[in-house]
Amino acid sequence: MTKVNKKTKSVDVQMHIKSSFDFINDHLPDVYAEKVLKKLKYMGITNISAGTIRNVKMRGAEKCNNIPVLTALLEVAKENKKVKEDLLSALSEIKSTKS
């Protein structure tokens, strides 16, 4: 008689990918596909569409299999975070000079 192995649904997500998606969800701008496409083009990857980029983002860490797109998403999120921080810094300087 053959021993039947039960398939277990495993979620083997590496922590750095999960934390990358957390960072992306917190800091990626609303309009990001064109910026990611430019990053990918700079990396030498030209065969990816905006739909593929959105699919990678929406599938999340559990189903991420496109590391170049994830890398480009992270770079755009990092740039957006820096812009937000610079804007907040400039606003706080303006407020302090008015007081």
Explained architecture:
The model has no long low-confidence stretch (mean pLDDT 88). This protein is elongated. It is an all-alpha fold and 99 residues long. It contains four helices and no strands.
Number of domains: 1
Globally, the shape reads elongated
Helix content: 55-70%
Provide the low-confidence segments as ranges: none
- Helix/strand/pairing class, anyone? mainly alpha
What is the mean predicted local confidence, pLDDT? 88
User: Care to count the β-strands?
Assistant: 0
Strand-residue proportion: under 5%
> Number of helix segments?
4
Oligomer: single chain
What characteristics describe this protein?
99 residues; mainly alpha
Summarize the structure.
The chain is an all-alpha fold and 99 residues long.
What are the SSEs and their pairings?
Layout (H helix, E strand, L loop, with lengths): L14 H13 L5 H10 L7 H10 L7 H32 L1
Helix pairs in contact: 1-4, 2-3, 2-4
